[in-house]
Amino acid sequence: MEAVVLTGEPGSGKSTVARELRKRIKGAKVIEASCIIYSASFFYPNLPDSAHLLLRKIKAKNLASNPPKVSRELARKIASKLQTRYSKDFVARALEYLCIKGSRHAVIIAGLRGYHNAKYLKDKGYFVVFLKATRSVLVRRLVQKYNYSKAMALLELGEENALHSTGRIEKIADLVVDTSKSKPAETALKVENSIGMP
After folding, report:
1. What is the pTM of this model?
2. Closest Cα partner for 23 from 112, 122, 106, 127?
3. In whole angstroms, what is the distance from residue 142 CA to residue 146 CA?
4. Distant-in-sequence, close-in-space partners of 12: CB < 8 Å, separation ≥ 6
5. CA 169 from chain center: how many Å?
6. Beta carbons within 10 angstroms of residue 101's beta carbon
7. DSSP string of 97-115?
8. What are the residues whose beta carbons fall under 8 Å from the beta carbon of 187, sequence distance 6 or more?
9. Which of 19, 63, 122, 189 is 20 to 30 A from 131, alpha carbon to alpha carbon?
10. Does 45 sit behind a cis peptide bond, omega within 30 degrees of 0 on the bond before it?
11. Which of 80, 178, 93, 94 is nearest to 129 (CA)?
């Protein structure tokens, strides 16, 4: 097991479960998938013509390790631009190139968005986990985390699925966990047991 990939809708607990899982997998490092979007923001809107050139620039500046932060709105615009300019699985390819390959430790990818990204990493043999929760739980978590109104939380969930087809990931995931029924530590234990950790 080189990498565990945690996917799901906003508010499903991807980052929280990643932190719990890191406690269980000795030497594992957690990589937020958004680091690719944030790294690309350094060059946005003047992205290079080729994906390979962008990856080389990100690697040369070591941006994936210390990416600049951007707003959720700008991150969504950049993600959309990366999909249309390069490929729908660009973030997954970038994560593999910059963060997974060559790592001496197990990698936990948290917050991966997009069906095509999840499918790419699954096809490469990485363990894909889809975290889901009831709509009311997702809305409550987004309201608490980002101080959204209920309407803003629902809009966020709708835009997420429209841009990334997040719901489709459940059908291809190696493991599906409902985090509205499972605490983060319990979810991490389910992942640990599924990947066969001793």
Report:
1. 0.92
2. 106
3. 6
4. 131, 132, 133, 138, 179
5. 12
6. 12
7. IIIITT-SS-EEEEEE--H
8. 13, 17, 20, 131, 177, 179
9. 63
10. yes
11. 178
What would the 3-class secondary structure string for 133-155 be? CCHHHHHHHHHHHHCCCHHHHHH
Q: How far apart are CA 173 and CA 150, in angstroms?
A: 29
DSSP sequence for 23-35: HHSTT-EEEETHH
Tokens of 114: 């997009």
- Note the pLDDT tens digit of each residue in 40-96: 999 999 999 999 999 999 999 888 888 888 998 899 899 999 999 999 999 999 999
Tokens of 141: 């978590």
The segments of the chain whose pLDDT lies below 70 read 1, 197-198
